[in-house]
Specification:
The chain is mainly alpha-helical. The protein is 43% helix and 10% strand. It has helices at 19-25, 46-59, 85-89, 106-113, 118-147, 155-158; strands at residues 8-9, 15-16, 36-38, 41-43, 91-93, 99-101. The protein has a two-stranded antiparallel sheet. 3% of the residues are buried. Mean pLDDT is 86; it is low at 154-159.
């Protein structure tokens, strides 16, 4: 039994089956008259934050087709240039997150990732991120009460 790929809808009501073609040619279905800004947060180690900033900078602009390696095929249709985040998603992408927690311990995360019981390892890792996020929100809430300045960070929207 063969099931055909479904058509996906993109901007201006255009429909194609291949997501990359639809985004590159027409843009996202919910694109408005003006590009919107993407606000996002980051939580991780100092080293992972550096790596993330490098990646975030790269996706902000044009990324050419990677050079062919020794074992690459002559034709690789899945290797195409990336026009940039704004051009693909009709949204502004800042290389700097609106909210960043970058003080998690690499050693602590590695130790937890190597717990023998995978369920326990995953729970410990997730708890590390969630507990740190909750602590940050608590600090921000205390600052908000002290200064009267309200920041728009809610746990529900950050997780």
């Amino acid at each position: 039994m063969h099931i055909e790929e479904p058509e996906l809808e993109f901007r201006f009501g255009q429909r194609v089956t291949y997501p990359r073609d639809g985004l590159y040619l027409f843009g996202p279905v919910d694109a408005g008259a003006a590009p919107r800004s993407i606000r996002y947060g980051f939580i991780g180690t100092p080293q992972s934050f550096e790596c993330f900033q490098e990646w975030a900078s790269q996706v902000s602009g044009y990324i050419p087709i990677p050079t062919r390696g020794k074992t690459s095929k002559e034709s690789m249709p899945h290797h195409v240039p990336f026009p940039g985040f704004a051009e693909t998603f009709f949204s502004h992408w800042s290389a700097t997150p609106a909210f960043a927690i970058r003080d998690l311990s690499e050693d602590d995360l590695r130790r937890k990732a190597h717990i023998g019981n995978r369920h326990e390892a995953i729970k410990e890792l997730v708890d590390t991120y969630v507990d740190r996020l909750i602590a940050e929100i608590g600090v921000r809430g205390a600052m908000e009460r002290k200064t009267g300045i309200r920041e728009n960070y809610h746990l529900k929207t950050l997780i």
